[in-house]
Amino acid sequence: MKTLERWLEWGGTKKDITLLALSAAALVVSLAGRTLLPFDPAWIAVVLCGVPIVLEAVIGLVTAFDIKADVLVSIALIASVATGEIFAAGEVAAIMQLGGLLEDLTVARARAGIERLVHLTPRTARVLRGTEERVVPAEEVQVGDLLRVLPGETVPVDGVITAGETSVNQAVMTGESLPVDKGAGDEVSSGTVNQFGAFEMRATKVGEDSSIQRMIRLVQSADAGKAKIVGLADRWATWVVVIALAAAVISYFVTHEIIRSVTVLVVFCPCALVLATPTAIMAAIGNATKHGFLVREGDALERLAGVRKIAFDKTGTLTYGVPQVAAVMSLLPEVPESALYGYAAGAELRSEHPLGKAIVRCFRQQSQEAPPAVEQFQMLPGRGVSARAAGRQILAGNLELMREQGVDFPQSCGAERYLAEGCTVVYLAVDGRAAGFLALSDTIRSDAAEVIAAIRSAGAAPVLLTGDHDNAAQHIAGQLGLAEVHSSCLPEDKLRYIDASQRQGEQVCMIGDGINDAPALKKAHVGIAMGGVGSDIAVDAADIALVNDDIQELPHLLRLARRMMVTIKCNMTFSMALNFLAIILALRGNLDPVVGALVHNAGSVFVIINSALLLKWRKKKR
């Protein structure tokens, strides 16, 4: 039995194409009726394409008593040969081979986009040990190793640049078409390509933990066979086998014509029914992949089609999750806002605090001048920083720092407006006097409002679930047109909301990026994680990962899932109707085994082609 299994697994698509070409040529010669062979050439198709079908049926029955389509096809083949209908048997076998080939090609095309990630895995790395540089296999790199990456090379592991400046092509991870400038302190991901300058980096994530390997694991976990509706089709296929056998037996006893019974067996093979769902799911997965989604669970799209609420986390999902300086306000006439901004950037130049880094980053982006040099610097944990820059003594931090240092800020300095909008305020003092403040906020994604409107038009209700306080949540909701808002949510609060909604029959899709979203992603009917900025735990908990964090494609994914279910139902309805119509014609004697084989297998080809249309499907904008 194992020898048979090994033989059946040989060759894949190339084997199928070879066998099909030889069988087709043999059938053409047989149909022409001119041959020098001492036997009907159709036997070649029976042996090359029919024998594997019979062997698979035998293996399934013997090892697992698995009654599927190949059982009925095998019976039809044997019956055709027994009645001398060699051409019909060869035709059935060849068209079955064609149907299998088309399915394989559909699946291969659907998965080609994501499987390219596997080939992007770096093979080697340049490890620096003292003054020596050694080229080693990438899997031998350890966390903390110092590496060198030359122009044109692929970054072997995740890490942080320690020396050098360059531009990195991150298209494989983020979808960005333009290279991104990188320097000391910037993170780089495995699988991305170094474009220009050489740099040195410290490894932070290696092996299975690296970005490219995480994406590959997502690819490998996608399996259309997990969809619940596939199991339904398989159960129907078993009943169809039983019905077909019963119909063939009844046909023989009523008409006493074995040829009609053979025709019934040929036309009632449930191949189209079995192909109806997996081909549609894999084509839809391929479509989703081209739009930046990695589908981890085969039935995720099926479940997404039934979703009526889509819950969004705020930070990193509807917003970029990166603080930006939203406003600079000066309280001293002699200190213009541009100078105050520069003092703040200079004071924060050596700070390790995320807000301090954000101030320096935004200043460099918005100003052509460098931050003033820092002569003295002191970090004040929980308060802020103290520094001397451009000959001025600068304090930057919260109100507690100002009070401790004897700086009196007026109650109506203008900061309260930004606090009400959910901004974070960094107060500034220059030479012991209240000088002003910087307001920092998380920036809403430019396409967030459009996405929310499109989701609503697609028939799903958008909901905001955020841990932010109510002022910030309501400010964001007002800008995006969100009617249902739940603020100050802890992870258990999000869980309770999702559980309560689903108990009321409203299936929820959760979209998030952080560790705190992982429980909700797991609990939701469908979980979608932001694969680029999201945490590993969030991605692992989700059913679908959005690789490039472009939420603009979310409405397309929702519509695609619903279109996939329409395609599946159309495929199944068509295949069942065709089977029953064909059996009626066969019982009446209107079909012989040859024509019956053409009718039956034409149905399988139609189902596969109809499913393949999902690969490029996209709803046209009005």
Account of the protein in words:
The protein has 622 residues and is an alpha+beta fold. Helix content is 51%, strand content 19%. The protein contains 23 helices and 22 strands. The strands form four sheets. Strands 10-22-21-20-11-18-19 form a seven-stranded mixed β-sheet, with helices on both faces. A six-stranded antiparallel β-sheet has the order 2-1-3-9-4-7, with no helix packed on it. α21 links the parallel β21 (526-530) and β22 (544-546). The model has no long low-confidence stretch (mean pLDDT 81).
Tell me briefly what this model is.
With 622 residues, the chain is of the alpha+beta class.
- Please bin the fraction of helical residues: 40-55%
The general outline is: elongated
| Structure annotation, total helices | 23
Instruction: Strand order, main sheet: write it out.
Output: 10-22-21-20-11-18-19
Rg, rounded, reads 33 Å
List keywords for this structure.
622 residues; 22 strands; elongated; 7-stranded mixed sheet; alpha+beta
Write the topology of this structure.
Blueprint: H1 2-8, H2 12-32, H3 42-64, H4 69-82, H5 86-119, E1 124-129, E2 132-137, E3 146-149, E4 158-163, E5 166-169, H6 171-174, E6 180-182, E7 187-188, E8 193-194, E9 199-205, H7 211-221, H8 228-255, H9 258-267, H10 271-290, E10 293-295, H11 300-304, E11 309-312, H12 314-318, E12 319-330, H13 337-347, H14 354-366, E13 374-380, E14 384-389, E15 392-397, H15 399-404, H16 415-420, E16 424-430, E17 433-444, H17 448-457, E18 461-465, H18 470-480, E19 484-486, H19 491-503, E20 508-512, H20 518-523, E21 526-530, H21 536-541, E22 544-546, H22 554-587, H23 593-612
Parallel strand pairs: 11-18, 11-20, 18-19, 20-21, 21-22
Antiparallel strand pairs: 1-2, 1-3, 3-9, 4-7, 4-9, 5-6, 5-8, 10-22, 12-17, 13-14, 14-15, 15-16, 16-17
Helix pairs in contact: 2-3, 2-5, 3-4, 3-5, 4-5, 4-9, 5-7, 5-10, 5-23, 8-9, 8-10, 9-22, 9-23, 10-22, 10-23, 13-14, 22-23
